[in-house]
Amino acid sequence: MKKLLFLSVVLTTVMLLSCGGGSRHQAEREEDTVDVNDLIRDHTVYGLCGSIPSATQLKVVTDNGDTLTLDITPAQNNHKMLGAVRVGDRLAIMTNKKQTEATQVININYLLGDWVMPDPLDGSDEVGIRIKEGGVAESIEMTNITYRTWRIFNGQLEITSIREGGGQSEETDYYDILKLSQDTLIYKTIGKPQDEEETLEYSRWKEKPKPDLHGLKLEEHQDEFMKM
Question: Computed from CA positions of residues 179, 47, 152, 134, in that sequence, does the dihedral angle turn out positive or negative?
Fold first, then answer.
């Protein structure tokens, strides 16, 4: 009888330990499991700057109607404050999981517009990209590539385009924005082979001043020439 009681106690203990261990291992497996959908989900927070309480804080009213108070020190320390921020500016922000810190802040107001650089082929003209509201992108004086759309996806600039000779198939490229200011946009390709990596440096398009004719009018000059 005593032996049976002892065996019963031993078996019960083993079962409890097994269950406890199984639960623990199951929890560990769940923690180590990565949701595949999480990898393709856009975690960017979009909204308007509501106020700037201090040099290291932003209050953002998100597109979902929430108001977040964010510590922007991480973004500042990592040079990820892309574009100066003013109240009312539209922002794309990467945050920590608790949404208390901003790791990257992109000022969409600064990103919009016409961006140009000297033509890489001969430098004779300016070529570039026009970034418009609503996710529309257009090429500027480019014959070999047609830009179609753009968006911010997990802090990266995503641009779709059609290249010359590629038929009508769209190509999607991702870029890391290195610098964004009122007059400068610099971004670098992501996920390309090393020999295909590019760093593109743009300036905001500005209308060139008209040439100074020193008071002469072209029509009058032509008339004088015809009299001679």
Answer: negative
